[in-house]
Structure prediction request, 75 residues.
Amino acid sequence: MPYFVFRISANRELSLVKTCEKFKEAKDLCRELRASESPDNPNGIRMAFAETEVKAKNLLAERRQPSSPLEEWEA
Prediction:
């Protein structure tokens, strides 16, 4: 399965930047984009591992439940 790298706009729209076959390639791309484009907003670039682009967008769009009380307190 590929890794999808997305740019998230201010109104929470996802736009595909690139599809990568290897995790290291996707991780390095995310780091480069975060450093050069949005140092004040690290959440502006996200990566998802999914079968298709549509499934990756759904993963990033869904609201996750905290897995521990500490995460719930931090939210």
The two ends are 30 Å apart (CA to CA). Residues 3 and 25 are 9 Å apart (CA to CA).
